[in-house]
Design a protein that fits this description.
single chain; alpha/beta; 2 domains; eight-stranded mixed β-sheet
Length: about 250
């Protein structure tokens, strides 16, 4: 089996993120699974509807975090309601699901090493967050298992300049290289790392990232800022000239 061709085909036939994740789970026959970053459990429920997992771990703190500057860092009252709704939506799948409420570093040790077929990461998204999630998740995955993730973005300012940048890319590529594992950059902002050192490190760039790296990402943002600044100066100059003409004619 040529795994890179198989993944290429999965990526090509998928119409959206959920369909792509489902196709990867089906392809890998992932029976013991973990989702890191559950939020409202919308993806979880769609997966549980379509697959019979032997175990499905759900990791999320469902509380306001003091060191996470992202728009979904709600207050505890709102998270309490979200968590209540999550429990209700997961009721039909109680025999498969294990809820671990806490951050990855707080609860991951409740999962045995080499016990999972796959992990899906849609958590913190900051550099600190993705470093911790990948670091803690990999030992839990069996040899040949899949490490899947969301929000592989070319623009680090996913949520605007008021929030911490999203640095899934390029860190996941460096992580795969450090562990000598193949990584697939996929459509719909997804990535896939296969936990098999015999396959070796290689990037399969099906999302067309090309030679984009963190230097170019930041350079692009700086260029955008310069362009905005230049346009602003022109606009201000126009307003100044307009006001001066108006008052001089009166």
């Amino acid at each position: 089996m040529n795994i890179n061709i198989e993944v290429f085909n999965l990526n090509a036939i998928s119409k959206n993120r959920v369909e792509l994740v489902k196709n990867i789970i089906k392809f890998g026959n992932l029976k013991n699974f973990c989702e890191i970053g559950v939020y409202k459990a919308e993806l979880s429920v769609q997966l549980l509807k379509d697959f019979s997992f032997e175990s499905f771990y759900l990791i999320d703190p469902w509380r306001k975090l003091t060191n996470w500057n992202k728009p979904f860092n709600h207050n505890d009252k709102l998270f309490k309601n979200i968590y209540k709704n999550v429990l209700k939506s997961l009721e039909p799948y109680g025999s498969q699901t294990i809820i671990l409420r806490g951050t990855t570093s707080e609860v991951i040790n409740k999962i045995e090493n080499n016990s999972l077929d796959g992990v899906y990461i849609d958590g913190d998204h900051t550099l600190r967050g993705i470093v911790l999630d990948l670091h803690y998740a990999l030992p839990k995955i069996k040899e040949g298992g899949f490490l899947i993730g969301d929000d592989l973005r070319k623009n680090i300012w996913q949520h605007g300049r008021d929030y911490s940048p999203t640095l899934i890319y390029p860190y996941v590529v460096y992580f795969a290289e450090a562990h000598n594992l193949p990584i697939f950059l996929l459509d719909f902002n997804q990535f896939l790392i296969i936990n098999d050192t015999e396959l070796g490190y290689k990037i399969y760039d099906y999302a067309k990232f090309g030679n984009l790296n963190e230097e170019k990402i930041f350079a692009t943002e700086q260029i955008k800022e310069k362009n905005i600044y230049s346009k602003s100066k022109i606009f201000i100059k126009y307003i100044f000239v307009f006001v001066r003409k108006k008052f001089s004619s009166e």
